[in-house]
Amino acid sequence: MQPREPSRTARGAAGHRAAHQIVERGAIFRDEFARRILSEEDLAAADSRAAGPAGKALRFFIAARGRFAEDALAGAVASGTRQAVVLGAGFDTFALRNPYPDLTVFEVDHPATQAWKRERLAAETIALPDTLRFVAMDFERENLAERLAANGFASDAPAFFLWLGVVPYLTRAAIFAVLRFVAAQKDNQIVFDYGEPLHARPILARLRALAFAARVAALGEPFLTFFTPATLHPELRALGFDEIEDLDVASIAARYFPQSRVRPGSGGGHLIRARAG
Ligand SMILES: C[S@@+](CC[C@H](N)C(=O)[O-])C[C@H]1O[C@@H](n2cnc3c(N)ncnc32)[C@H](O)[C@@H]1O
Fold first, then answer.
1. Once rounded to an integer, what is the mean pLDDT over residues 91-120?
2. Quick check: CB of 93 below 6 Å from ligand 1?
3. Are 47 and 20 in contact (CB under 8 A)?
4. Is the CB of 113 under 6 A from ligand 1?
């Protein structure tokens, strides 16, 4: 990210969720705030992009990752978890839609992006739920444990972490600092998405991924970190995650849109859920 500028990719991801509410009528991921939270200009850009076939794969991936995360969160809440942490929240609206009256939601994001989101919420006079806490921090420079503790997070009680569309933009050191913190508390769970390195993807997927990587780099938010399941899973187990669910592109498509021939994302995207033992 540019140090003082709000994330541009956060607007892009939110645009895909907004378009999904219209084009697929929220079939994979329903979000009644997805359109309201965007400015008219961003909505118009998202809708015109969605009119063509180009953005469909990414739109499906972004819808599927929200659904995967919130379904897993529902399971955690049913088992007693009372804290959710949305890491790199961007224009994610779960905190506004939170259906669990005793679930506290911590929205962690880069200060510039969070300030911008708060301006949008105020401009739309969207009421902030009492269960929402904002935590501004830079994952590359600050400590998640300290920032959460300063905002009322109980690190001795289980929490569910949603980390969508963020990991590829961070350094390995920042990623593992967060994962180490999450792994330290039994029954903590985290859902995140990651991309496989380009050389691990089939040739057509590699070309699509190269084009996508060039677009985000041009926005000042280059991809910094890739993983393969073969190396990531042992690293997660070494940290203390003893339950790992990892969906590749084919499994995501089979689970969330079996009738469609669309392959989500640019070909090497994964959704992962890990639970600390
Ligand atoms: C592609 S957006 C995803 C936003 C949201 N999770 C979603 O799925 O729509 C990336 C998010 O990561 C955040 N981010 C990127 N680098 C960060 C950093 N070093 N510290 C804190 N947040 C960061 C950005 O502010 C932005 O909100």
1. 98
2. no
3. no
4. yes
Which residue matches tokens 């708060």? Answer: 118
CA atoms within 13 A on the CB side of 26: 9
CB 262 within 8 A of CB 178: no
Crossing angle between the packed helical segments 249-256 and 56-78, to the nearest 10 degrees: 70
List, in sequence order, the alpha helices (H) in the chain: 8-23, 40-50, 56-78, 94-97, 111-123, 144-149, 172-183, 203-218, 229-239, 249-256
Residue type, 172: R
Tell which one of 4, 5, 7, 162 to mutate to probe ligand 1, the residue whose CB is within 8 A of the most ligand atoms.
7
pLDDT tens for each residue of 10-26: 999 999 999 999 999 99
What are 235-276's pLDDT values in tens digits?
A: 999 999 999 999 999 999 999 999 888 777 767 899 999 999
Tokens for 31, please give them: 């979000």
Q: Is residue 161 exposed (0-12), middle (13-18) or buried (19+ Cβ within 10 Å)?
A: buried
Residue 161 is classified by DSSP as E
274, containing H or E segment: strand 269-276
Q: Which residue has the tokens 């959710």?
A: 84
CATH T-level fold of 8-276: Rossmann fold (3.40.50)
Amino acid in position 23: V
